[in-house]
Design brief:
This protein is 46% helix and 17% strand. By secondary structure, the chain is an alpha+beta fold. α2 packs across α5, α9 packs across α12 and α9 crosses α15.
Length: 471
Amino acid sequence: MLYSVGVQGARAQAVESPQLEVREAIARLTYAPLAFEQPVVDRHDVGEVPVLLLEDHDLPLVTVATYIRGGYGRFERSYYGAAMGLPALLRYGGTESRTPEAIDEVLEFYAFQVAFGSSGGSVSASINTLVEHLPEALDTWGEMLTRPRFDETEIEAWRARQLESVRRRVDDPARLAYSEINRLLFGDHPIGWETEESDLAPERLTREVFRTLHERIVCRDNLILCVTGDVDWPTVEPLLDRLVQRLAPCAEPLPPPPLPEIRRAPGVFLIEKPIEQSVVVMAHATDVRLEDDVEYFSAMLGNSILGAGGFSSRMLGRVRTEEGFAYSATSIWTTPRTHEGIIGATTRTRPENTAPAIELILRTMSELRDAPPTAEELGTTVDRIVNGFVFNFDTPSAIVARTMYYLAQDLPEDWLERYWRGVQEVTPDDIRTVFSEHLRPDEMTILVVGDPARIREDLARLGPVTLVEVR
């Protein structure tokens, strides 16, 4: 019996030894320092419209996309519904010469892939096609962009879907929490708007309203175009020129985006909903902007260390791993280019853990105000960003899309190189400084969606609780 045990022990050692050798070999591996060279995208102009081109001849495919300045955030509230619906009606509303069904037949016949979308400040559109069908693709896509029909049946169908979405908003606790925290923080500003039935009134969604909005947004001076794929400039230039000539110059400049006045008063707000998982969102204003500045890079890295970096972040480690309050918890730090953003956090947890989880998140935030992160925390975060940077450019379309966004944001042409360099120059003290100057846990606006019978008494430990009536 003793002999048997001895043999098993010897076998165990024989198995473990190669494993240790492999680990040691891995630990001894060295790598050349990573270097980043910003991908070069060709810049052209067609009729004063900027065009970005990146050739890619691996497959016989071409993608053409556009960024169009002008979204719902540029117009008064009466246009909000129509501005939200404009991309859908460009896609499904037909054109002056073709019905919606006829457009669908063309897209299906040629296997064109089209997409239309919008944000507060812009409208986007793209089409992907085999290179042999590029002329037909740009003719169809150009007609959809520049000569929309705004079919009344499609308008009504879109309106009906949105009305149903409005009625169901309260059914989704997370959506309800995010929309209401935006309303609390931003008030009567486009960021704080949520679609209401009055935005979808028939008189606000007429064909004439859509046409007026379309003329203000989809015009030559608002466009940036980009092309990627199996095509060169001499081939695509005349096709783009025909597209641009379809667009009239803008009759007047877009109204400037309104600057938000973000709520400054702290408070605890409750939306009463008898659910088994409370939704918690908290935030306050901060004035770190998207720019080539150590403060911006420090905020981005610090936010990752705090809660946005997933399992390596402090917040998830405390809230999930140590206390078991929630499956996930993350921090938020927005850095708009032209106005203030917000810093905060969000999580979901059981009712009895709601107040303790909030208190733990606030304590975790305060720690980065009081002391810098460790060198190991910063190194891990920087390595993750630097080593993953290449995946921002794994396809030509991704490269050009990023370049087009930076151009629209009026960032320097070498912004990616500046970002790469900037994140590697941040020190732990830089992060402590930006947190001490911009993070104020005691000034948070805290919103909870949850069961009042099980959480309201505990929430009162954080301050007076204000009930929010959902509209």
